[in-house]
Amino acid sequence: MEQIFNLYWEAIFDAAFKKIGDENVAQDITQEIFISLWEHREQVIISGGLAAYLHGAVKFKVINHFRNTTVKDGHKAELATLMNQRYADSADDLLILKDAQQKVEEALMLLPERMRLVVTMSRKQEKSIKEIASELNVSVQTVKNQITSAMKLLKKSLS
How many domains does the chain fold into? Predict the structure, then answer.
Protein backbone atom coordinates (compact mmCIF):
# COMPACT_ATOMS: atom_id res chain seq x y z
CA MET A 1 0.00 0.00 0.00
CA GLU A 2 2.89 2.36 0.75
CA GLN A 3 4.22 1.85 -2.77
CA ILE A 4 0.80 2.65 -4.23
CA PHE A 5 0.61 5.78 -2.09
CA ASN A 6 4.10 6.91 -3.10
CA LEU A 7 3.46 6.17 -6.76
CA TYR A 8 0.05 7.84 -7.12
CA TRP A 9 -0.19 10.49 -4.38
CA GLU A 10 1.12 13.42 -6.42
CA ALA A 11 -0.96 12.63 -9.51
CA ILE A 12 -4.12 12.24 -7.44
CA PHE A 13 -3.40 15.43 -5.50
CA ASP A 14 -2.75 17.34 -8.74
CA ALA A 15 -6.02 16.06 -10.24
CA ALA A 16 -7.96 17.12 -7.13
CA PHE A 17 -6.20 20.50 -6.90
CA LYS A 18 -6.83 21.16 -10.58
CA LYS A 19 -10.56 20.69 -10.07
CA ILE A 20 -10.88 22.33 -6.63
CA GLY A 21 -8.25 25.07 -6.66
CA ASP A 22 -7.77 24.79 -2.90
CA GLU A 23 -4.63 23.02 -1.72
CA ASN A 24 -6.04 22.02 1.69
CA VAL A 25 -9.23 20.57 0.25
CA ALA A 26 -7.25 18.76 -2.45
CA GLN A 27 -5.02 17.23 0.25
CA ASP A 28 -8.09 16.16 2.23
CA ILE A 29 -9.66 14.55 -0.82
CA THR A 30 -6.42 12.76 -1.69
CA GLN A 31 -6.06 11.50 1.87
CA GLU A 32 -9.69 10.33 1.98
CA ILE A 33 -9.23 8.37 -1.24
CA PHE A 34 -6.19 6.50 0.06
CA ILE A 35 -7.78 5.89 3.46
CA SER A 36 -10.90 4.53 1.78
CA LEU A 37 -8.78 2.31 -0.48
CA TRP A 38 -6.95 0.96 2.59
CA GLU A 39 -10.12 0.42 4.62
CA HIS A 40 -11.89 -1.37 1.77
CA ARG A 41 -8.86 -3.12 0.27
CA GLU A 42 -10.45 -6.55 0.71
CA GLN A 43 -13.72 -5.59 -1.01
CA VAL A 44 -12.45 -3.27 -3.75
CA ILE A 45 -12.52 -4.74 -7.23
CA ILE A 46 -10.49 -2.69 -9.66
CA SER A 47 -11.09 -3.19 -13.35
CA GLY A 48 -9.35 -0.96 -15.85
CA GLY A 49 -6.28 -0.21 -13.79
CA LEU A 50 -5.51 1.42 -10.47
CA ALA A 51 -4.79 4.87 -11.95
CA ALA A 52 -8.22 4.96 -13.63
CA TYR A 53 -9.86 3.83 -10.38
CA LEU A 54 -8.10 6.54 -8.37
CA HIS A 55 -8.91 9.27 -10.90
CA GLY A 56 -12.55 8.16 -10.86
CA ALA A 57 -12.48 8.42 -7.07
CA VAL A 58 -11.14 11.98 -7.40
CA LYS A 59 -13.99 12.88 -9.74
CA PHE A 60 -16.65 11.62 -7.34
CA LYS A 61 -15.00 13.17 -4.26
CA VAL A 62 -14.77 16.53 -6.04
CA ILE A 63 -18.40 16.38 -7.15
CA ASN A 64 -19.44 15.51 -3.60
CA HIS A 65 -17.32 18.35 -2.25
CA PHE A 66 -18.96 20.89 -4.56
CA ARG A 67 -22.39 19.43 -3.93
CA ASN A 68 -21.87 19.88 -0.18
CA THR A 69 -20.33 23.35 -0.57
CA THR A 70 -23.09 24.35 -2.95
CA VAL A 71 -25.75 23.42 -0.45
CA LYS A 72 -23.94 25.35 2.26
CA ASP A 73 -22.80 28.39 0.32
CA GLY A 74 -25.21 28.60 -2.60
CA HIS A 75 -22.53 28.25 -5.30
CA LYS A 76 -24.67 26.32 -7.75
CA ALA A 77 -22.76 27.50 -10.80
CA GLU A 78 -19.62 25.61 -9.75
CA LEU A 79 -21.51 22.35 -9.40
CA ALA A 80 -23.24 22.82 -12.75
CA THR A 81 -19.90 23.48 -14.41
CA LEU A 82 -18.46 20.26 -12.99
CA MET A 83 -21.36 18.13 -14.12
CA ASN A 84 -20.95 16.55 -17.50
CA GLN A 85 -23.66 17.37 -20.05
CA ARG A 86 -24.42 13.69 -20.58
CA TYR A 87 -25.86 13.61 -17.06
CA ALA A 88 -28.34 16.36 -17.89
CA ASP A 89 -31.57 14.48 -18.54
CA SER A 90 -34.04 17.21 -19.32
CA ALA A 91 -34.19 20.40 -21.34
CA ASP A 92 -34.44 22.37 -18.09
CA ASP A 93 -31.19 20.84 -16.87
CA LEU A 94 -29.48 21.79 -20.13
CA LEU A 95 -30.74 25.37 -19.87
CA ILE A 96 -29.55 25.62 -16.27
CA LEU A 97 -26.18 24.16 -17.25
CA LYS A 98 -25.76 26.59 -20.17
CA ASP A 99 -26.77 29.53 -17.98
CA ALA A 100 -24.29 28.46 -15.31
CA GLN A 101 -21.53 28.04 -17.89
CA GLN A 102 -22.26 31.52 -19.26
CA LYS A 103 -22.09 33.01 -15.76
CA VAL A 104 -18.78 31.26 -15.14
CA GLU A 105 -17.40 32.60 -18.45
CA GLU A 106 -18.52 36.12 -17.55
CA ALA A 107 -16.92 35.78 -14.12
CA LEU A 108 -13.69 34.54 -15.75
CA MET A 109 -13.56 37.69 -17.88
CA LEU A 110 -13.50 39.77 -14.69
CA LEU A 111 -10.27 38.12 -13.52
CA PRO A 112 -6.91 39.78 -14.12
CA GLU A 113 -5.40 38.63 -17.43
CA ARG A 114 -2.60 36.48 -15.96
CA MET A 115 -4.94 34.81 -13.46
CA ARG A 116 -7.47 34.13 -16.23
CA LEU A 117 -4.69 32.57 -18.33
CA VAL A 118 -3.65 30.26 -15.49
CA VAL A 119 -7.25 29.18 -14.85
CA THR A 120 -7.87 28.64 -18.56
CA MET A 121 -4.74 26.52 -18.91
CA SER A 122 -5.69 24.52 -15.83
CA ARG A 123 -9.41 24.00 -16.39
CA LYS A 124 -10.01 24.26 -20.12
CA GLN A 125 -6.72 23.01 -21.51
CA GLU A 126 -6.41 20.50 -18.63
CA LYS A 127 -2.73 21.21 -18.09
CA SER A 128 -1.04 20.19 -14.88
CA ILE A 129 0.26 22.75 -12.44
CA LYS A 130 3.81 21.81 -13.37
CA GLU A 131 3.10 22.25 -17.09
CA ILE A 132 1.57 25.67 -16.50
CA ALA A 133 4.50 26.75 -14.33
CA SER A 134 6.95 25.60 -16.98
CA GLU A 135 5.13 27.32 -19.85
CA LEU A 136 4.72 30.59 -17.98
CA ASN A 137 8.21 30.49 -16.47
CA VAL A 138 6.93 30.78 -12.89
CA SER A 139 7.12 28.57 -9.82
CA VAL A 140 4.63 25.79 -9.11
CA GLN A 141 3.63 27.66 -5.95
CA THR A 142 2.84 30.79 -7.97
CA VAL A 143 0.49 28.77 -10.17
CA LYS A 144 -1.17 27.23 -7.10
CA ASN A 145 -1.58 30.69 -5.55
CA GLN A 146 -3.06 32.08 -8.78
CA ILE A 147 -5.57 29.22 -9.01
CA THR A 148 -6.53 29.54 -5.34
CA SER A 149 -7.01 33.30 -5.67
CA ALA A 150 -8.98 32.87 -8.89
CA MET A 151 -11.30 30.31 -7.30
CA LYS A 152 -11.96 32.67 -4.39
CA LEU A 153 -12.73 35.54 -6.77
CA LEU A 154 -14.95 33.32 -8.92
CA LYS A 155 -16.86 32.09 -5.87
CA LYS A 156 -17.35 35.67 -4.74
CA SER A 157 -18.55 36.89 -8.14
CA LEU A 158 -20.84 33.87 -8.64
CA SER A 159 -22.52 34.07 -5.24
Answer: 2
